[in-house]
Amino acid sequence: MAAISGLDRARHELGHHFVGYHLKFEMGDVSIEPPLGNLVFIGGTSELDTSRPITSMLELEKWCEDRVKVLYAGVIAQALKGGVVDNQAAICLTTEVSGHMDHKMVSQLMNLLRNVRYSDRPRADAEISMQADELELWSETSDLVAS
């Protein structure tokens, strides 16, 4: 996995923070941690409270969508250069140090959404529908980060 610079880590964490704030999550601190010893990994966090009242399946879907957007926002903001998101670079970042944990959480949330929305369909059809939903969430997040 590639090393990440302090500026890239700051962009990543501030992307989470910006989108979380926009989507009305209660946001906490943003931190960037310098590497320890010989490690090249620069850590960081963007704290948010994911608590929301969920009293219906529609509210659950909305919560999952908003949480996915916050998770995507890190790599999308990291790939923002000159006000333009390099989507290919952002997608590549989902497998790197900066984005792999976020991507794992996105996968779990998308599985939950698939089970809620498309459990009455054959799995292959449900997967196609979820890919379209995931692309839409990515696009909405990209537009928000670039705004």
Automatic annotation (TrEMBL):
UniProt cross-references to InterPro entries, sorted A to Z: Peptidase_M41-like
For the biological process aspect of GO, one term held by this record is: proteolysis
Specify the superkingdom. Bacteria
Molecular-function annotations in GO = ATP binding; ATP-dependent peptidase activity; metalloendopeptidase activity
Signal peptide location in the record? none
Q: Which residues form a coiled coil?
A: none
Name of the molecule in the record: Peptidase M41 domain-containing protein
Species whose genome carries this gene: Sinorhizobium alkalisoli
